[in-house]
Amino acid sequence: MTDASPETIHLEEAALAAFRRGDLPEAIEGFSLARAAYAAVNNPLKSAEMANNLSVALLQAGRAAEAAAAVRGTPQAFLEAGDDLRAAQAFGNLGSAQEAARDRAAADSYRRAAELFRRLGERESLSLVQRSLSALQLRSGRPLEALASMQEAVEGTSSRGIRGRLLRWLLRLPFGRFLLPPRT
Questions:
Q1: Rg (Cα) of the chain, in Å, rounded?
Q2: 56-62-64 Cα angle (round to 5)
Q3: What parts of the chain have a pLDDT lower than 50?
Q4: pLDDT, tens digit, for every residue of 169-180?
Q5: What is the pLDDT of residue 176?
Q6: Other beta carbons within 10 Å of 74
Q7: What is the full DSSP assignment across the chain?
Q8: Which residues contact 23 (CB under 8 A, 6 or more apart)?
Q9: From CA 129, how far away is CA 113, in angstroms rounded?
């Protein structure tokens, strides 16, 4: 792996700055150039990081199919390097992009992210992924799976507010109580 040039680092920093100020076209161009520049100096992890950033910017710009294409393959790059945290984040980004592109593989990507976050003890990140998976399952007509995913999401949060406690209590009630019609 070769170190990046000051120009490559500048591309990355400029793209991040553009993203933070909401200039998505500039951020997209910058992340694309930075990804290619890191790949050119044989730095696959930084290239994968830029691809993930590019995916987020493309998704925010409403370009879901391009976002999914940009992030595809990056989870494996992080896994091969032993970076499970960034792999989990990449699977989450892939799931978000796939979901927006109406790709059925989104649920699998979310599950892979959740599996890694769970193993790493990343409770807040796990909760976010489980909430996304639950919403996707609910829209896909799988309410029991959605309920189970949401229960794991809620149980994993550190929020102790009244809303969180109420939701946790409701989810502990037997499934059938809310999903089945009353007996007559």
A1: 19
A2: 65
A3: 166-184
A4: 444 444 444 444
A5: 40
A6: 27
A7: -PPPPHHHHHHHHHHHHHHHTT-HHHHHHHHHHHHHHHHHTT-HHHHHHHHHHHHHHHHHTT-HHHHHHHHTTHHHHHHHTT-HHHHHHHHHHHHHHHHHTT-TTHHHHHHHHHHHHHHHT-HHHHHHHHHHHHHHHHHTT-HHHHHHHHHHHHHT----SHHHHHHHHHHHS-THHHHSPPP-
A8: none
A9: 7
In the block, tokens 């406690």 appear at 165
d(CA 69, CA 76): 14
Instruction: At 167, list the tokens.
Output: 């939701």
How confident is the model over 76-116, as pLDDT tens digits?
999 999 999 999 999 999 999 999 999 989 999 999 999 99
In 10 A of CB 66, how many CB atoms?
18
Q: Which amino acid is at 78?
A: F
Site of tokens 């995913």: 149
Q: What are phi and psi of 42, to 5 degrees?
A: 60, 50
Which amino acid is it at 100?
A
CB 52 within 8 A of CB 78: no
pTM over 0.90: no
